[in-house]
Amino acid sequence: MAMAMQAPKDPKSRAGAMLAHLSDPHLPLSGGVPLRAVLNKRLLGLLSWHLKRHRRHRPETLTRLIADLRCQSPDLIAVTGDLTNLGLDSEYRAARTWLEGLGDPRHVMVIPGNHEALIDGAWDRGAASWQPYWQGDEALRTTDVAQAFPVLRRRGPLALIGTSSAIATPLGFASGEMGKAQLDRLAALLRRTRSEGLFRVLMIHHPPLDGTVVARKHLRDGAALRALLQTEGVELVLHGHSHRSHQQSLTTRDGSVPVIGVPSASSMHHEAAAYNLYNIVPTDTGWSVTLTTRRLGEGQKMETGRCVSLTIPRPHAACAS
Ligand SMILES: [Fe+2]
User: Fold this and answer.
1) How far apart are the C-alpha atoms of 166 and 35, rounded to whole Å?
2) What is the DSSP string of 67-126?
3) Which residues pair with 17 in a beta bridge?
4) How many angstroms separate the alpha carbon of residue 285 from the centre of ligand 1?
5) How far is the CA of 241 from the centre of ligand 1 (A)?
6) The CA-based dihedral angle spanning residues 50, 53, 59, 64, taken in that order and rounded to the nearest 10 degrees
7) How far is the CA of 248 from the centre of ligand 1 (A)?
8) How many whole angstroms from 84 Cα to the centroid of ligand 1?
9) Tens-digit pLDDT profile for residues 274-306
10) How many other CB atoms sit within 10 Å of the CB of residue 196?
11) DSSP alpha helix (H) spans, 196-250
């Protein structure tokens, strides 16, 4: 599964940046699972994996996608969670190996999904093994992973902002929550990066718009997040979780913002496995964004799905030059 990835180009070496987005790879559950580790909500997840999910999330599908992604040489790769299934320590270790195959931590940024936090404490335990892949540019000021998000990476014209909506929920639920403290920190971060004239990309596992997923899987404080984004602005929101593609929008102080979800990178169940590529180029009046979807098509061959051009007018972009 692991493969060496050619070091991507430095985004600062050109005017724009190429950002790839994939989500929900749900890497194969392999090896023994200790009984004591699954005497909880994980038991249903384990049954689900053996009864159906192992047939949906296929490593060979994911391998084809990643091989295609390598050929695009993106500057940055954003992974919006659900690398695991039960949030087991062994899955975190396997996912770390997979991330290393995907690329150097400087060029790959991951955030947690609900499966990483399937039971209380799972994400707290697992986060350390992925830290180089989720932490921001600045050293962490806390050892409490719940206080660590949002994180920020500045890359050329981009401000890549990683958030955590991963929380443990009761049986039958897969909802998420950012919490007031994280939302307050996010507001400050969006304000700061706006004043720097950066193209702000928000990474979140759960879709922020109502109705994208059923209520038991939704973002509990989605209304608060939307209100915050409307007040502070953002240029692009990327999410996963639904295992389907979405292209929606949100109106903010700065104008319309694309809110875009990708299907699972390893499954052909709901729709073809896919990832998105964003070519983000500064213009005189903001940014031009070309979104290209690469998906697994007939005959197991990768093909281009949609290719759309988005214009993101932003007066504050002028601050960047
Ligand atoms: Fe999810």
Assistant:
1) 24
2) HHHHHH--SEEEE-S---SS--HHHHHHHHHHHHHH--TTTEEE---GGGGSSTTHHHHH
3) 280
4) 36
5) 4
6) 160
7) 18
8) 10
9) 999 999 999 999 999 999 999 999 899 999 999
10) 13
11) 222-232
CA dihedral 74, 78, 83, 87 (to 10 degrees): 150
Please name the fold of domain 14-273: Purple Acid Phosphatase; chain A, domain 2 (3.60.21)
- The tens digit of pLDDT for each residue in 215-266 reads 999 999 999 999 999 999 999 999 999 999 999 999 999 999 999 999 999 9
Centre of ligand 1 from the C-alpha of residue 177, in Å: 12
> Nearest CA to 114 among 217, 253, 248?
217
Ligand 1 centroid distance, CA of 206 (Å)? 7
The token duo for 108 is: 């790959």
- Encoded tokens for 189: 């971060």
Tokens of residue 116, six digits: 């990483």
Amino acid at 68: D
192 CA from centroid of ligand 1 (Å): 29
Distance 258 CA to ligand 1 centre (A): 20
CA of 244 to the centre of ligand 1 (A): 11
Predicted TM-score (pTM) of the model is 0.93
